[in-house]
Amino acid sequence: MSSMSSVAGLSKYIQTLPVTKKSITSICILSFLTGVIYCLIAPQYSITNNLFLEGLCGFMVLGVSSIMSGSLNQYGVKVLHGINLKIKHSMFLSLLSMVFISLILIAGGIISTLFHMDLFINSLLFGCVLVYGFNTLVLWSTTQIGFSKSAIIAFIQPILILALLVLILFLGSDASLFSTPLIINVTIKTMIACLIFILAIYSFISIAASPLKKNLGIGMLDLLSLFIMHMNEGSDRLESTFKDMGEPIDTIVTFISFRGANGIKSLFISPSVHPGPLGNIGGSNMPTILANKFDHFTMVAHGPSTHDFNPISVSEIDKIENCVKDGLENIEYSKKASKFKRYTMNAANIGVQFFNRGMVILSTFAPNGSDDIEFGVGLTMMTQSISKCDVKDSVIVDCHNSFTPESGEVLPGNPEVFDLIDIIDKIETEEEFSSIRVGCHADTMETLDKHDGIGESGLKTMIVEVDNQRTAYVLFDSNNMEIGFRQEIIDAVKDLDIDEIEVMTTDTHTVNTLSRGYNPVGIEKRHEIIEYVIKSIKEAIDDLEEVEVGTGTKKIKNLNTFGPKNSTELISTISSVVAVSKIIAPVLLITALFIVFIWIFYGNLQIIG
């Protein structure tokens, strides 16, 4: 699996949290049950030795304090101008923290019964310390309020729990139990335990964050918090971080224009710009945004490019639009086109069709898995085909239609590159041209969405008819295609009134905000998707009309992208941080847990028993 696939896969940990009402209901029920369960397993160490009253005490100590902390945490972060922590997030965090404490209390109750010792207070303190550290980590890494402020707000829930416990014990017990030495004892032991735990957390974050800061000048927690903000709210503030590390490049956009009686009927664009990185950040939705900038049917295919060429902001797509529109003003049209032909060389497969003074090359490695074709490789294909076939423009398309988790990019030096170079030498220069008819159809596939791997533009189909041969150009607004699904589509449309078909994807990364990370079309609902393809081909055939055609190539200057070095370094650095964290985090946190456990249960400052 590529490094980008590993990083994209991290998005599976971003899930939709329950609404506030459900979290509060869960807090009330679980806190009451905690009191009841503790009374059942350790009745001799419970406060009242009555199931209902113990449940009520559990609700008061754990439930009420957690509900209050859920509200106070959110309010505190809001006052400090933090981000991401809405009330449903804050209440769920309190619920999760309360569950941790409940489990520790129940475990303490079991041990108390087995070994005949009262561990209730110590277990509660241990749980509160762990929750304090956990809350500090969550608030610090997601809200952008800083470590010290996060550490202060994280105290709210543990303090409320301990304060309500003291109040209940005071009202129901001998007040002499709450002597000054005991209070000092509990306070000192808790403060030291909290300090030990958050020092471990601070050390872990400092170590994990240093590579990104050193290599790219990006704060890891800033990156994480803005990423979460984008996932939750669709915010584009993450683009500001990318602007600090981006660099301008020059690249190209190629296009084919089909002009009918009423003007341009169809526009086929292949920009050497990558539609990433994910969600709606940068150029992730470029295929739809760019297509919508034109008043006619427009297909934006995937040109040769990798994540190095991700635009750092949506506004950069305007530069592609301007280049295409400038090129359309000078385009030369004619009614000359050739039939569609296929060529194969080892793993490489291409479909070639000539249009006027240009040509299109649809490249795929299906049935083998593959990922992005690097720009330099695509540029080589372009210059070689222009020279070999004596054309003015060569529109290179990475069909991006055969994905496996192990799929890798096609980079200089790979065997696939030489297959592509050799296969271009096999292309026969076309001498016979005929008139051309084109029909188009667009379908947003309303019953499917990004959960099914379908982006905003859905499905676009263009039928090109030359000398009684009909070729279907089928383009999904998707990020690659599950391996084997391309052939399944081809087999399913054999009985339709077409002679050739190629299935492509735009490589949109708007579908990558989901649990799968990468989310190729065809994982689910294949039959439904094929029905859309069949319908779209039929509609496009009905739309056929005679057209003129012309091709064009324009250079895009100063396009601000991640950049060849920064993109690779960002991905590799994040991958390294994840790998190293898997080792460092357990070592530091388990060590801290062990020290805190020993300190609370066996420290010199004994609290009970």
Characterise this structure.
This is DUF2070 family protein. Keywords: Membrane, Transmembrane, Transmembrane helix. Pfam families: DUF2070 (PF09843). The chain has about 600 residues and is an alpha+beta fold. It is built from 17 helices and 12 strands. It has helices spanning about 5-10, 20-40, 50-80, 85-115, 120-140, 145-155, 155-170, 180-215, 220-235, 240-245, 285-290, 315-330, 375-390, 415-425, 485-490, 525-540, 565-600; strands spanning about 245-260, 265-270, 295-300, 340-345, 350-355, 360-365, 395-400, 435-445, 460-465, 470-475, 500-505, 545-560. It has an 8-stranded mixed β-sheet, sandwiched between helices. A 4-stranded mixed β-sheet has the order 4-5-6-7. Helix 13 (about 375-390) links the parallel strand 6 (about 360-365) and strand 7 (about 395-400). Helix 5 (about 120-140) packs antiparallel against helix 6 and helix 5 packs antiparallel against helix 17 (about 565-600). The model is unreliable at about 1-5 and about 605-609 (pLDDT under 50).
Task: Set down the secondary structure blueprint.
Blueprint: H1 3-8, H2 20-41, H3 51-79, H4 87-115, H5 120-142, H6 147-153, H7 156-172, H8 180-216, H9 220-233, H10 238-245, E1 247-260, E2 263-271, H11 286-291, E3 297-300, H12 317-329, E4 341-345, E5 348-355, E6 358-364, H13 375-389, E7 393-398, H14 415-425, E8 436-443, E9 459-466, E10 469-476, H15 485-492, E11 500-505, H16 526-542, E12 545-561, H17 564-602
Helix pairs in contact: 2-3, 2-4, 3-4, 3-7, 4-5, 5-6, 5-7, 5-8, 5-17, 8-17, 13-14
Protein name: DUF2070 family protein
Pfam families: DUF2070
Transmembrane segments: 24-45, 51-72, 92-114, 120-140, 152-171, 183-204, 583-602
